[in-house]
């Protein structure tokens, strides 16, 4: 629902360089057809409506946009673009039922515009008409198979209706277009979890976390990954904050941090160095090798003190053990034979 609200704010627009390039190319290609006065008028109206409509949407002047396009529809009742934008502003202003009349007309006048069907689907979504909503996303995709929002929202629609197997390919297609899509990546992993496709689920959580480790969903994704006994990402509790980072990794049989390990340690240091009155506790675990556990603890401390002077004067405390670490995730006790733990205490 949060993403639907985001789209309704009018953030999708075609202004700026892409807009100019798009319409300039159309003008050049279609110039020979401008002999038809009717064509010129229709094309000019569509161009004017797009510029004006996107301006009102991007500047969030929804009431003014509604008033302007009400007049446009009165003057040009057979204009698909006027009806479409009037529907957009009615929908934005909480009048989803009223907007359907104008979306219906825009789709009837010009049945080839994918975005007309997409926004009618959004009106159906607002009215709780899930089947009509899904049907219009499919109509939009028939006209534009790479329509990212339609792919994502059809995935949402099917996901909410627990049609997980049907939703999955639409999220996958959305990811193919936008590999960092947070909602598509997260929901793909969640669906694979629901379907008990464990090897794919594991890969999907890692892919989500590679781009979006921060925040509550990053924490949830890490818990799901850890429950699969994959500890490539870990949650650490620094004061009241949960910090999710890639696992601290080492060169084999050594206390030399890898590049990935250094990056994660950088994040831990940046956060803990800004915490007044806090002591960062570093605990290393190496099953049956106390010497290596100690060397790794000292290696972490040297790096932190070098990079973050604010952590000097007793702000970093070390412990090391020749045993596994045991963590609890959603009530389950999990064992990690080689691990680093971070947490904070007060002075």
From TrEMBL:
Pfam families linked to this entry: TPR_16
Residues of the signal peptide: none
> What UniProt keywords are attached to this protein's entry?
Repeat, TPR repeat
Coiled-coil annotated spans: none
Q: Which PANTHER family match?
A: TETRATRICOPEPTIDE REPEAT PROTEIN 6 (PTHR44858), UDP-N-ACETYLGLUCOSAMINE--PEPTIDE N-ACETYLGLUCOSAMINYLTRANSFERASE SPINDLY-RELATED (PTHR44858:SF1)
Q: Does the keyword Coiled coil apply?
A: no
The residue spans of each TPR repeat are 148-181
- Where does this protein come from, organism-wise? Desulfotalea psychrophila (strain LSv54 / DSM 12343)
Q: Kindly provide the name given to this protein in its UniProt entry.
A: Uncharacterized protein
Stored Gene3D superfamilies? Tetratricopeptide repeat domain
């Amino acid at each position: 629902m949060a993403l639907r609200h985001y789209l309704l704010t009018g953030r999708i627009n075609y202004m700026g360089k892409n807009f100019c390039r798009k319409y300039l190319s159309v003008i050049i290609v279609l110039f020979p057809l401008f002999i038809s006065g009717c064509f010129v008028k229709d094309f000019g109206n569509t161009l004017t409506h797009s510029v004006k409509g996107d301006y009102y949407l991007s500047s969030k002047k929804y009431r003014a946009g509604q008033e302007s396009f009400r007049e446009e529809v009165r003057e040009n009742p057979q204009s698909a673009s006027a009806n479409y934008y009037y529907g957009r502003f009615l929908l934005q202003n909480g009048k989803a039922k009223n907007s359907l009349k104008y979306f219906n007309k825009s789709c009837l006048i010009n049945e080839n515009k994918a975005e007309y069907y997409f926004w009618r689907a959004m009106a159906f979504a607002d009215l709780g008409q899930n089947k009509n909503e899904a049907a219009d996303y499919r109509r939009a995709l028939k006209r534009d198979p790479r329509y990212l929002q339609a792919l994502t929202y059809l995935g949402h629609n099917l996901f909410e209706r627990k049609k997980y197997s049907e939703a999955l390919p639409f999220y996958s297609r959305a990811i193919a277009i936008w590999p960092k899509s947070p909602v598509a990546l997260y929901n793909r992993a969640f669906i694979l979890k629901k379907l008990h496709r464990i090897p794919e689920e594991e890969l999907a959580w890692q892919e989500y976390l590679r781009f979006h480790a921060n925040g509550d969903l990053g924490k949830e994704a890490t818990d799901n990954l850890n429950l699969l006994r994959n500890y490539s990402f870990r949650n650490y509790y620094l004061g009241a904050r949960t910090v999710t980072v890639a696992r601290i990794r080492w060169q084999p049989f050594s206390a030399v941090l890898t590049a990935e390990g250094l990056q994660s340690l950088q994040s831990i240091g940046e956060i803990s160095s800004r915490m007044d009155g806090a002591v960062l506790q570093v605990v290393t675990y190496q099953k049956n090798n106390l010497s290596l556990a100690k060397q790794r603890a000292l290696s972490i401390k040297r790096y932190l003190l070098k990079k973050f002077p604010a952590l000097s004067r007793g702000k970093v405390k070390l412990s090391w053990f020749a045993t596994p670490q045991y963590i609890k995730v959603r009530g389950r006790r999990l064992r990690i034979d080689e691990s680093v733990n971070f947490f904070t205490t007060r002075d």
